Amino acid sequence: xxxxxxxxxxxxxxxxxxxxxxxxxxxxxxxxxxxxxxxxxxxxxxx
Length: 47
Prior knowledge:
Elements: H1 3-20, H2 24-43
């Protein structure tokens, strides 16, 4: 399984949670979480 294959479902889940959330602050938090996961994946670090 590729790293992208592992990360994509997480990013999708984050996006869904963000769209359900009425709070911009939590929305921003989810985006930062997704960015951290992407950076970790690019470095090849295992979750």
